[in-house]
Amino acid sequence: MGENFLAKMHEVTILLYAFCVLLYFIDFLQNNRKAKQWAAFLLSIIWALQTVFFLLYMIDIGRFPILTLGEGLYFYVWIIISLTLVFHKYSRIEFLSFFTSILGFILMVILTFAPFRWQSEALAQNLASELLFIHITMSIVAYGAFSLSFIFSLLYLFQYRLLKKKKWGIQLMRMDNLVKLENMSYILNALGMPIFLLGVILGLQWAYIKIPHLSWFDWKIVGSFMLIGIYGLYLYVKLRKEMAGKSLAFYNIGAFLFVLINFFLLGKLSAFHFWLQ
Asked: pTM (2 decimals)?
């Protein structure tokens, strides 16, 4: 596939995302069910287009496309949308799709206009081992779980603010209770953290085999273990009931900000993730 085709594909997706976010915003302000239905329809189309494109691209290059930063980011967005559609179908949590659409839109803009290449095929072929494949896949799935957990914490704080100011409007009536929002955030982190931990272990095993003189003080390695510690502490304080409610939601938001730092910044500073340079 040519780079022009990739660019056009991303531009079309961004336009659909923009309309999707606009419709969700109209529903957010006016409780417009028709706008919400159209937004959900557009989000399904975006997911279908991304799935088809992902499969065609995989067939074209002959491997699962997650070995470069651009490919990994695209797969990350696909994971977020997939989880959003599942939650939309089975839980009907209000405003989740709105916030995840905003996040997906931002990531697609970064993917389209950021100055990194989608692939370096010769290098990708050298890196394509089963350990690396599983490591990257598990890490991105964990990032998707952390992302949705972050959205639930935002929804928690938004509803908490409405309740505190006694704004008994339509938006408050449409949202789930605070306990459910906090529990969903916890469940996603409880799933994401062990998946990420296993992914890191497999990645280190691959690096030990493939990369001579690997430094254990590499930025990416240190950042990944810090991330495990941050989410491990989240699970600990939640289970011990030492932190809950508003404080736990703020903690989770801060944890997700470190996810973004670990994914974007520390990967660029790392010798361990040198294919992302």
From this structure: 0.69
